[in-house]
Amino acid sequence: MKPLLSRVESKKVDKAAAMLKVLAHPKRLAIVDLLGKEDKMTVTEIYRTLDLPQAIASQHLITLKDRGILSSFKVGTKIYYSLSIPKLLDVIDSLEECCDTM
């Protein structure tokens, strides 16, 4: 087993912390949760479902895509987004359980 200090300073922990920082925004978390329930959605479907201004939704989608959390593909003029890391839903569920016990 590695000493605690070397595990804490590892790149893996740094990457996890960076991912949690991205997910820390409530709207980005809502987008991840929504796309975990749907196979794919367009920007329009996302911002209408979450009642967000289109520009705000687009900014969050770009941030999530840049971090590899979402992927996108284009069909005609529509861009569809989907969740690239389905295990993030387990994180959301775990956090929800923790909040229920607080």
TrEMBL record:
Name the InterPro entries for this protein.
ArsR-like_HTH, HTH_ArsR_DNA-bd_dom, Metal_resp_trans_reg, WH-like_DNA-bd_sf, WH_DNA-bd_sf
Determine if Transcription is one of this entry's keywords. Answer: yes
A Pfam entry, by short name: HTH_20
Q: Where is the HTH arsR-type domain?
A: 8-102
Q: What keywords are assigned to this protein? A: DNA-binding, Transcription, Transcription regulation
Could you tell me the superkingdom of the organism this chain comes from? Bacteria
Report the SUPFAM superfamilies cross-referenced here.
Winged helix' DNA-binding domain
What PANTHER family does this protein map onto?
Answer: ARSENICAL RESISTANCE OPERON REPRESSOR ARSR-RELATED (PTHR43132)
This protein is called what? Metalloregulator ArsR/SmtB family transcription factor
Give the source species: Hymenobacter tibetensis
High-level lineage: Bacteria, Pseudomonadati, Bacteroidota, Cytophagia, Cytophagales
